[in-house]
Amino acid sequence: MARTINIAIAGLGTVGAETYRIITEESDFLKARSSANFNVVAVSAKSKDKKRDVDLTGVEWIADCRDIADIDNIDVVIELVGGSEGVAKDLVEKAITNGKSVITANKALVATHGNNIGELVAKHDVMFGYEAAVAGGIPIIKTIREGLASNRLSKIYGILNGTCNYILSVMRETGQEFEDILADAQRLGYAESDPSFDVDGVDAAHKLAILSAIAFQTPINFSGVYVEGIRLISPIDIDFATELGYRIKLLGIGELLGNGLQQRVRPCLVPVNIPIAQVEDVFNAVAAEAEGLGTSLSYGRGAGAGPTSSAVLSDLLDFANNRRTSFLGTADSELVVRPIQELQKLSGSYYLRLQVYDRPGVLADLTAVFRDKGVSVEALLQRGRNPDGTVPVVLTTHETSEEAIQKSVAEFEKLENVVEKPCILPIENFAG
Amino acid sequence: MARTINIAIAGLGTVGAETYRIITEESDFLKARSSANFNVVAVSAKSKDKKRDVDLTGVEWIADCRDIADIDNIDVVIELVGGSEGVAKDLVEKAITNGKSVITANKALVATHGNNIGELVAKHDVMFGYEAAVAGGIPIIKTIREGLASNRLSKIYGILNGTCNYILSVMRETGQEFEDILADAQRLGYAESDPSFDVDGVDAAHKLAILSAIAFQTPINFSGVYVEGIRLISPIDIDFATELGYRIKLLGIGELLGNGLQQRVRPCLVPVNIPIAQVEDVFNAVAAEAEGLGTSLSYGRGAGAGPTSSAVLSDLLDFANNRRTSFLGTADSELVVRPIQELQKLSGSYYLRLQVYDRPGVLADLTAVFRDKGVSVEALLQRGRNPDGTVPVVLTTHETSEEAIQKSVAEFEKLENVVEKPCILPIENFAG
Questions:
Q1: Which helix (H) or strand (E) holds B47?
Q2: Could you tell me the mean pLDDT of each successive run of 10 residues in chain A, 432 residues long?
Q3: Which domains does chain A possess?
Q4: Measured between CB atoms, does A47 come within 8 Å of chain B?
Q5: Model ipTM value
Q6: Which of B299, B271, B214, B252 is nearest to B430 (CA)?
Q7: Which residue from A105, A79, A106 is spatially nearest to A91, judged by alpha carbons?
Q8: Which of B127, B130, B256, B296 to mutate to probe the A interface, most A CBs <10 Å?
Q9: What pTM was computed for the model?
């Protein structure tokens, strides 16, 4: 006889409603893939009266979602409330403590409190599924935690925020400024009214911290992520990048440097002819590298009702099929605390754009700084003069150190002919 | 106390030797990801005396790999012998019948006898892992069978054969002919001495049949795959495709058409600016599409010791973690036998290259055929005359039916000015 799994859903936004719809309308399909019956017993959301496209007849409405943790017959709590603190955290911790399994899309919660949650999960021997926390339409948690689990990964990187990728794509296609595209995206509902989580890189950093921990067998270290957003990218940079054979992408990159861990979210130049450069609009992509394996990359929609509910439901099917994996894919006792390596430890080539007054000697001043810091110039491009008498100058470098670049930039900023803060973008040449 | 898993490996080529090396040298790493000890008890290969880079001290050598199935204390048999018939089939069936779990990289065996093996696996309640049978460096079986399991997929497609993709990539980069590149690839060990499994599309068809069955909840139907290889592609086609904004790729495509299943392996034109077009050299990629989900694509190395052993070992870690999935991800009783839809049921736009004598009226003859068959021409390109007086003419069409194209081609072949068999390539415009 088929087992029945009793479920509660906290949060009935687009993802919650779609998850509910599929569990109720596609019950035969889900049963064929799990030999289980799924039964939504209770739901909770901020407003009971809000119009929703789902029929909640016969489902218990819980006013305070935290009370779900106390309902005896619930096996799995699907938490779609969001936020690293507050009721979502309370609900998740209480549900686990009460022996219930939890499935969540809450990247902020996992990135911030994941290590404590992982301990609770092990103690109470429940399942904690968070596939939906990173790149919904790509089963990347499963890919890294199970599919590539035998590999000692050396690097992971990806386009982890669809809003930023959308803005950069539209910038390239239309030449519009960042602020204008953001305003349009907000009007269309692609970007939040407070966009800072997205455009300042925080959301990508949450996801990177989760992926790094799995990839490198180490506790989650969100505060150890260097974070830079895309506000400083101008259409000029997009044009120069295109001219030089690159695309600009906001990448999250985690890698082992010696025995330490380097994690950064930062706009980068990537060669136009590698797959990640072709990831456009709201799409996400994540790549993992290991010796032997080479590069394994996954691509898909990162957000929205369909992709995110797909991830939630794959966790639910894992639960129903008794497919369990430890929180980070590595036994807790075997996790290694890795020292965080600062950005200054990196080396590579770089793209710099400076806005300078078009006067004699200005290029000599710039190149002299690089000479003094031991930085070798690969290309120098200068464009036509602006009405204010300034011109953009772009320099790309051969392999050098992040430290030499930072020191050079500090010198550039002292030059009287340099106006504005220089835009510095690393050039990332990934292995195949 | 950690559980010990006893393993036998049949086949010690590059993949078998690398699998053995990792199990023995990386035992601590694998244990951290499974809480199990792995112990290779027995191995078997054609020649005991062949020089191998692994230390087999203390491991029992089994002359006839089929005898492995009778060794009592073995939990998992790793079958890397290959071939759809013969000893590999005997070993796998006997091992399962004797209650042992099996992990294999044998796509020919799974594509040809998978349905029977699936029944045996269910009857004897063992695990049968075949992640390595399709695109080793991409955990695509896991992705489709577990990660995307809640989606009703409508289409899967991919670059499933690294040798073909390598040849097409080199053709584009160097302008060399197919035969010359193949000969080089054989010399370098990238292509088999008998290349027909690869270049005629059979290998890709094996993989497609496996993926289709999982994706569409249907028994494996390898004989229902339409198969066409890349021998007819000439450097001229690559040039024309580039000029028109496309790449030529050998794709395996499976899709639901009405209640039926359409499966084909065939060279196609794909727009240059979508991710699958950027998959070059020996890389593989597989995409799945569903309403709601959109496209989810995975990319990586498809063959070689590192990628293939990664897949074998991910199955081994699933076994050690008790993560079980039914053979095709759907309960056997819920599999639906789907009628095969013939190629003629397809519609789309097409690329045709004809070699014609450059005489007055030839273009009028060609376009009249298309008019009579109701095919609308999108573009017509003609190139300079060859020394033999022939010219290549390329026609691309608007949306039409495969049937109209086939009928048109039959008429083209009757025209006295048409020399050679026309090259017909569908143009595949995939959804995002």
A1: none
A2: 93 96 97 96 93 91 97 97 96 98 98 98 98 97 98 98 96 95 88 90 98 98 98 94 97 95 98 90 96 96 95 98 97 95 96 94 94 96 85 96 97 94 94 72
A3: 3-129 (3.40.50.720), 140-302+331-341 (3.30.360.10), 346-427 (3.30.70.260)
A4: no
A5: 0.95
A6: B271
A7: A79
A8: B296
A9: 0.96
